[in-house]
Write a structure and sequence with these properties.
Blueprint lengths: L1 H14 L1 E6 L4 E4 L8 E5 L4 E10 L6 E8 L2 E6 L3 E3 L14 H7 L14 E15 L2 E16 L9 E8 L5 H6 L5 E17 L3 E20 L2 E22 L3 E11 L3 E12 L1
Antiparallel strand pairs: 1-4, 1-7, 2-3, 4-5, 5-6, 8-9, 8-15, 9-10, 10-11, 11-12, 12-13, 13-14, 14-15
């Protein structure tokens, strides 16, 4: 019977208390049930504590207080207006009524999802460019495959400015060198970088359709065998670029983007690419 009484006391002690959330930053814990009592500590808004179910009137007739337990060494009284109790009924009853205000406050806030236009993504890109050059007054072009990186969104270069950045490379020269100019396979590479401002036509939660305007730059380094000699060709070109594209977000943090671009430099040509990556 002694053991049964002991368990009953524990249960009653547990049922006579409840959780609470501090709703006012700097809420005071008083030694006595009085606002004139010296505060022994202060609490931050959102902090969880244990309080009594019962409210106690202030000793001097002002206000209502809960008993509060923050830790074994920190106990006292707190004004009822400074906390949100777990239950709406403060006295022990068989029926417990949850406090909806406590439940709403206690829920973890959902992470706000930024619009796609203002979300930063980083990924791999595969691009096909109808690369075109003017050689000895003759315009030559061929579809050239480039690989590289895609960075899109604000904060890469400028805060709050949504940019589309491409860093691309092809490890072989365009095929027209071997078809029309060389006596042996040409070697070398093309490096292309694009920087454009994204402007949306349509911006939904997980889909954006946009156009872009910006700048393009390229560096080529080719070794071109002609007869018994090798021609070393290096060139830097800059120009402007315009594009149309669409990007889709899925599984919260991944994206797929497809775009077409029009290059305007010494010559004019088009390209298109696909990117896959993750939120950064």
């Amino acid at each position: 019977m002694a053991e049964g009484k002991k368990i009953t006391k524990k249960v009653r002690k547990r049922m006579s208390a409840q959780s609470a959330i501090v709703q006012n930053s700097g809420a005071a814990i008083y030694k006595e049930r009085s606002f004139d009592s010296d505060p022994i500590s202060y609490l931050e808004a959102g902090q969880k504590v244990r309080i009594s179910r019962k409210k106690y009137p202030g000793k001097d007739g002002f206000g209502l207080f809960f008993k509060v337990i923050v830790s074994k060494s920190l106990k006292g009284y707190i004004a009822d207006v400074d906390v949100i109790p777990q239950f709406t009924k403060t006295k022990f009853t068989k029926k417990i009524k949850d406090n909806p205000e406590f439940e709403d406050y206690d829920k973890k806030p959902e992470k706000k999802k930024e619009p796609m236009l203002f979300t930063r993504y980083f990924g791999a890109q595969l691009a096909f460019v109808n690369y075109t050059e003017l050689i000895s007054g003759r315009k030559l072009s061929s579809k050239t495959t480039l690989y590289g990186l895609k960075m899109t969104g604000p904060g890469f270069l400028l805060e709050e400015v949504p940019l589309d950045i491409d860093i691309l490379i092809s490890i072989t020269p365009p095929s027209y060198y071997d078809e029309y100019l060389t006596t042996a396979p040409a070697t070398g590479f093309i490096f292309v970088s694009n920087l454009a401002l994204k402007m949306p036509f349509y911006d939904a939660k997980n889909l954006i359709i946009y156009y872009s305007l910006g700048f393009t730059g390229s560096y080529t380094n080719f070794k071109i065998p002609i007869g018994s000699s090798n021609l070393d060709s290096q060139e830097v070109k800059v120009g402007v670029i315009g594009g149309l594209g669409a990007a889709m977000r899925f599984s919260e943090k991944y994206f797929f983007q497809f775009d077409t671009k029009y290059y305007y430099e010494k010559t004019q040509y088009v390209g298109y690419g696909a990117s896959f990556g993750f939120q950064y």
